[in-house]
């Protein structure tokens, strides 16, 4: 029955890919279409208000500067609000200002689409901060990433220009995230997810004591939290909290919300490339990797913890430690795999309590960072590996590699090397540094292999802009706030800017006519090569530390 639940959700996703991918193409192709009638008037008003009378195409440098400057302004705004939230309205519970390093970590986290939380939402933020900073950044960070992904696709598919960042940014809001968020919010409210500005409830318990129950504008945050692959929860328990995720139905709604847009982007890419097989090839590579890692997690969690099984305790339900009974192993495993594949970071079970082998799945997905990915990041990274695969195949036969009719040369490969190497560097180096300092070691609650995995997971989550955690770290300290904040910045912007430069470089090149010797990138052979390239590079960079962490821990339990 559990496998049937998983298969049903995957089938629903597959049915959504084509219509949603087509819609995204219509939105960002900048060609006249029927959506202009609905949203055109609103957008023209926004462009006029923002002084965007002429929305000419941008070079990659100008696009990157526009992207960065917009993010900087939003970070400054968010930092100010959190530092003075105690004196602002919509604060019925009297929550004070946030500490400086925690504020730095929080605004960086949400602007980079990471949503790593070193605070508990119901006690750390006012309603105004939840809406004006957290929810606002969930929209704007997702729209920023989406815009960069679309610009990258335009560049490598030979469009005349990368587009205009501000136009893409506005369209991502008006035509994608706001309409979908409104729809999902209404669905969640219908399923009893709170949406209110009333203060914390005070109720009498059966023992005659009083209990404080936090509520607030939860549904509106939940919708964009998943649609924008953000992941930051209104409550500290995130989507394991019954107010955020009360039933198996809301669980499926949240899974599809964070999965459907990243899954539709490869199909959109195929339409931009005027070759749908290109898009389906990328999608297939992502889905194969996804299913492999989902199978590992589901198998490991279903078998239970070997140490507990050895005690003779019934393991028929699997390893239920840290999981909600209303979801069970199937929906917990699917949620875990989707939230780390889509770099969302939302959790409906505690990843720290998963079996060592089950914990490899979220770790591996964040380390690969290209299996669907967040808003556009997964597509950019998978296409980066596709270009690398073409380059390697070209070297094997002594032919100048080509991708979508453009030669791949030294400049592109240097930029791709930067994007590929920065990811393991900002995971492994800080992990090692944290064990070498007293400030880092003081937060580690578990000695041995599991402690290594906790630290590794924290930095992998930060670098992949995921935001989930093993939650065994005492991470709300100056050291961890600053370290993870810097990792989040580097993980977000270095690779995105490098790949924008690749797109700009390819856009300037003259297309090369296809010949009988051209290596095709729209067939099953190339999909297999792409999967192999991802796995080989992932294993070379991360397998040693995986062996030292979860695999070593698993062997000690047997």
UniProtKB/TrEMBL annotation:
Entry's Gene Ontology cellular component terms: plasma membrane
Subunit field text: The system is composed of three essential subunits: KdpA, KdpB and KdpC.
Top-level taxon in the UniProt lineage: Bacteria
Principal subcellular localisation of the protein: membrane
Any GO molecular function: potassium ion binding
Protein localization: Cell membrane
Keywords in alphabetical order: Cell membrane, Ion transport, Membrane, Potassium, Potassium transport, Transmembrane, Transmembrane helix, Transport
Transmembrane segments annotated in the record for this chain: 6-28, 63-82, 127-153, 174-193, 252-272, 279-300, 376-395, 415-436, 486-507, 528-552
Similarity comment: Belongs to the KdpA family.
Annotated protein name in UniProt: Potassium-transporting ATPase potassium-binding subunit
The protein's role, per its UniProt record: Part of the high-affinity ATP-driven potassium transport (or Kdp) system, which catalyzes the hydrolysis of ATP coupled with the electrogenic transport of potassium into the cytoplasm. This subunit binds the extracellular potassium ions and delivers the ions to the membrane domain of KdpB through an intramembrane tunnel.
Membrane topology: Multi-pass membrane protein
HAMAP family according to UniProt: KdpA
């Amino acid at each position: 029955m559990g496998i049937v639940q998983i298969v049903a959700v995957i089938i629903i996703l597959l049915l959504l890919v084509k219509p949603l991918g087509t819609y995204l193409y219509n939105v960002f192709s900048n060609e006249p279409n029927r959506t202009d009638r609905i949203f055109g008037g609103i957008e023209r008003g926004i462009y006029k208000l923002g002084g965007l009378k002429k929305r000419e195409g941008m070079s990659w440098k100008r696009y990157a500067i526009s992207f960065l400057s917009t993010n900087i302004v939003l970070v400054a705004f968010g930092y100010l609000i959190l530092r003075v939230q105690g004196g602002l309205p919509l604060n019925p519970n009297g929550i004070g200002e946030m500490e400086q390093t925690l504020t730095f970590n929080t605004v960086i986290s949400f602007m980079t689409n990471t949503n790593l939380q070193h605070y508990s939402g119901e006690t750390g933020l006012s309603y105004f901060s939840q809406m004006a900073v957290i929810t606002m950044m969930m929209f704007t960070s997702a729209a920023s990433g989406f815009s960069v992904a679309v610009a990258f696709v335009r560049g490598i598919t030979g469009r005349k220009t990368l587009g205009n960042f501000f136009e893409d940014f506005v369209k991502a809001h008006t035509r994608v995230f706001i309409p979908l968020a409104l729809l999902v919010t209404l669905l969640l409210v219908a399923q009893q997810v709170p949406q209110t500005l009333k203060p914390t409830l005070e109720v009498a318990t059966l023992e005659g004591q009083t209990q404080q129950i936090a509520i607030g504008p939860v549904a509106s945050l939940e919708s964009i939290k998943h649609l924008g692959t953000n992941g930051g929860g209104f409550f500290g328990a995130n989507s394991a909290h019954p107010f955020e995720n009360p039933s198996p139905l809301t669980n499926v709604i949240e899974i599809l919300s964070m999965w459907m847009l990243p899954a539709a982007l490869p199909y959109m890419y195929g339409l931009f490339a005027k070759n749908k097989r290109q898009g389906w090839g990328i999608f297939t590579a992502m889905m194969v990797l996804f299913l492999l890692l989902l199978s590992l997690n589901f198998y490991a969690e279903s078998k239970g913890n070997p140490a507990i099984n050895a005690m003779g305790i019934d393991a028929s339900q699997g390893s239920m430690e840290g999981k909600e009974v209303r979801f069970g192993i199937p929906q917990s495993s699917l949620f875990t795999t989707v939230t780390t594949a889509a770099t969302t970071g939302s959790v409906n079970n505690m990843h720290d309590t998963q079996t060592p082998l089950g914990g490899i799945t979220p770790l591996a997905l964040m380390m690969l960072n290209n299996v669907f990915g967040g808003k556009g990041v997964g597509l950019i990274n998978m296409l980066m590996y596709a270009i690398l695969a073409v380059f390697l195949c070209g070297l094997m036969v002594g032919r100048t590699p080509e991708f979508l009719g453009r030669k791949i040369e030294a400049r592109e490969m240097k930029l791709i090397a930067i994007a590929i190497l920065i990811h393991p560097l900002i995971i492994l180096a800080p992990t090692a540094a944290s064990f070498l300092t007293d400030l880092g070691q003081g937060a580690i609650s578990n000695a041995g292999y599991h402690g290594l995995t906790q630290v590794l997971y924290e930095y992998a989550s930060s670098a992949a802009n995921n935001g989930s955690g093993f939650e065994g770290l005492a991470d709300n300290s100056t050291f961890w706030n600053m370290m993870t904040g810097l990792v989040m910045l580097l993980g977000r912007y270095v690779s995105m800017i490098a790949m924008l430069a690749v797109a700009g470089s390819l856009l300037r090149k003259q297309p090369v006519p296809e010949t009988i010797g051209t290596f095709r990138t729209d067939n099953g052979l190339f999909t297999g090569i792409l999967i192999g390239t991802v796995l080989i590079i992932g294993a070379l960079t991360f397998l040693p530390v995986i062996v030292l962490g979860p695999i070593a821990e698993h062997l000690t339990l047997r």
